[in-house]
Design goal:
Helix content: 40-55%
Order of helices and strands: HEHEHHH
Low-confidence stretches: none
Largest sheet: 2 strands, parallel
Number of strands: 2
Number of helices: 5
Mean pLDDT: 89
């Protein structure tokens, strides 16, 4: 989960046999209570359905699904979806994250957190804070 700037709020790494919606529940459960001002969460169409109600009742947040325009053929930049994709691209520049080298999910989460810390420190150093 990232904020509107694309900076990491919460990370959960899980096995590939877990459905995205179930993995999202793990992220929401880990995030609940950490950010009292959080009211709205954007997600793509893969998270539509019962998850929207679950997030509202469990976490008290509004889960807004950013839908693709069915009339547009081909690639389309969707509002707010690019923020997460950009964050993935930033993290992908770290060699340790370019492949799945880790055996433990906790280690993968720690490496992602270290990479994001490095990105944020670089911004502060260059005066982009």
């Amino acid at each position: 989960m990232v904020d509107t700037l694309g900076l990491l709020l919460t990370v959960v790494v899980h096995a590939a046999n877990i459905q995205d919606r179930d993995g999202a529940k793990l992220v929401f459960e880990k995030t609940r209570g950490l950010f009292p001002r959080l009211k709205l969460v954007w997600a793509d169409g893969g998270y539509a359905g019962q998850l929207v109600d679950w997030v509202q009742t469990t976490c008290g947040w509004l889960l807004e699904i950013v839908k693709r325009n069915a009339e547009v053929i081909g690639f389309q930049v969707l509002p707010r979806r690019w923020v997460v994709e950009r964050s993935f691209a930033w993290l992908g520049r770290f060699r340790r994250l370019s492949k799945d080298y880790e055996e433990l999910t906790d280690t993968s989460e720690a490496i992602i957190q270290i990479a994001m810390i490095r990105l944020m420190l670089g911004r502060i150093q260059r005066g982009y804070a």
